[in-house]
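User: My collaborator and I are trying to settle a disagreement about how two of our proteins should look. Neither of us wants to argue from intuition anymore, so we agreed to look at predicted structures for both before our next call. Could you fold the first one, then the second, and keep them clearly separated?

Assistant: That sounds like a sensible way to settle it. I'll keep them separate. The first protein:
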Amino acid sequence: VALVTSLRDGMNLVSYEFVACQDSKKGVLILSEFAGAAQSLGAGAILVNPWNITEVADSILQALTMSPEEREKRHRHNFVHVTTHTAQEWAETFVSELDDTVIEAKLRTKQVPPPLPEEDAISRYLQSTNRLLILGFNATLTEPVDTPGRRADQIKEMELKLHPELKEALTALCSDRKTTVVVLSGSDQKTLDDNFGEYDMWLAAEHGMFLRLTKGEWMTTMPEHLNMEWIDSVKHVFEYFTERTPRSHFELCETSLVWNYKYADVEFGRLQARDMLQHLWTGPISNASVDVVQGSRSVEVRAVGVTKGAAIDRILGEIVHSKSMTTPIDYVLCVGHFLGKDEDVYTFFEPELPSDGLAVARSKQNDGLKTTQVIDDLL
């Protein structure tokens, strides 16, 4: 029996050496749960709390009186680990992962999309007769944040406001009978009403789950039998992590919740986000039909199927019906700062047609400014 009762250590090599030299005797390892080796050898060893003298004594008795079959089983489990996780294996894995990281970095650099060809976009806009503009809100139409030399004002930035310099342009676009403007956002209905109520446009709140023409009433595009029983339990988890993470906050909508730690300490916020995900997956959403969407500094939980791409079809149906369109939409421009989950807003407009001069300029990039043009008949 090897008795290792460290109160604190890193990688305890004595435990590994004992296992390695016991292939014939099948000795039993009693290991402190505070030892670094407990994470890898804990399955075959008897783990003890070294502060608990009675537990240590009982474990010694258990080890000395253990049946040969159990000793064999425990030793075999640890022996396989020790003989496969060698220094050579560690070195090869480390170098391999380093190579992979370099390759991934090169791929990311190559995949940066080209900028929107502005002159082409404008000329095609002028030639078209039935245009659809789909605009995001947060970080697309809002007032600038994170300006160099300007201290961030968390309270002010949490309240989304339309950039004042865009008001004149929006008014001109919305007054053009050939142009339909849709603001598609994850924000709630009140936020969109406050910012865009004066314009003649379509508002799609909560990722398109609620829709209205600014001259009409809000309608829901929510699928039937959408299960939202999980929302209260997830809310309790968000409240818990908001309380223990200074300068974090969460937003509650009818179909989703978002926890934002943009203003919290970077490293602490990431640790809290990781703990939050573990809490969620092992509890409130373990059997729920939800999607977890991770942003650069946020965690969002939303019902399955609640994406901007899924909403586009329903939105187009309402627009075509209300405007009694007789001519097809011949110009689509989509601009937004969307999360990865909402990238399908672009693939929705990817035509599966033979290449016959169809001009398509698409760009896809997570958490960045994206633009897409699709010219020709889409309906």
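The second protein, kept apart from the first:
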Amino acid sequence: VSTGNGCGHTLLTPHSGTLSSKNYPGTYPNHTVCRWRLRAPPGTSLLLAFGDVDLEPSEHCAHSSLLLSDPQAGTAYGPYCRNSVPSTPLLVTNSSSVTVLFNSTSHLSGRGLLLSYATSQHPGMGRAFPWDVGRDPLTPLTMPFSVYCPAGCKDIHGDIWGNPSQGYRDTSVLCKAAVHAGVITDELGGQVSLSREKGITLYESAFANGLHSKRGSLSEKRLVFHKGIFPISPESCDDVLEVAAFNASSWWHEVDVLGQYRAWVAERAALGTAGHSWAAEPGTEASWLELDLGTRRNVTGIITQGSSEQHDYYVTSYRVSSSRDGKNWRPYRGSGGQEDKVFEGNADSHGEVSNAFIPPIIARYVR
């Protein structure tokens, strides 16, 4: 739970989370306060990682401060500001409940604060926030290692370069890259296995799981994510699933200005089809496209594309539902499970956008 007018990006779950001050990493505002109450499951304790604490210095941190309190043990940590920073980047508490208090008076500078937390069930979390984790000289090249990424790291400040098939420049924000690669879901975070390998000449950008990576040049090393012991690549999945049949709620019977007829039927929805794609009848509500996979399959993600630059149409967002028998349909709600998940679609008519299903869908029919 967070309260106050000084709260920035915040995602708190029972097992991990990320929080920041308002405007982070821009200068935090004057005369604000935010209180976050962190609660872990009974029997566990909280670990807090200080990603960034940059509050304008003052005597006894009187002008701007970060203060943590442990109500169960009656102890407090801080106050912290630029001239009184935490002595270690990781704070291990003995409590399942911690209150984080941030406040500011008048000031001129300071990025504010960025914190993450996890429970004692995830001791590897301490390596999730340092941006240079991939350049740790103690980690031999290609030696796999594991990190616990907290929930909410998708929207933290920092860039990523690369994509799941290439790997990522080791200067990328690690947990953000893991969300982009579809290894974890941002709503829950999770354990990530990866290795450092030899860098490549060029890292192509891609839009995936609500994040846009950047195009970047050579780096000496790159980060390659793993599922189990296998690297994430097109070969690690069961390849592209064959679609036995396409169906749709409706389709567009187009007649252009020259009187030429064009049918935007469901079968034209196959990725890579030249020319125009599928489109619903204009003006219809709750349109859907249905894919029949022929038999029950394990579906780990979806790639969407617009109708080509010649026919400039695309879908900006969509929901997914699935069925094993074609009669009973289940909306996809992702790892959170509270509301139907809205996937971020395309921003132009030619680029491909990937979205991962975490957990995967087991179904014959997908809408």
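Some points you might bring to the call about the second protein. Residues 71 and 98 are 7 Å apart (CA to CA). The first helix runs from residue 174 to 180.
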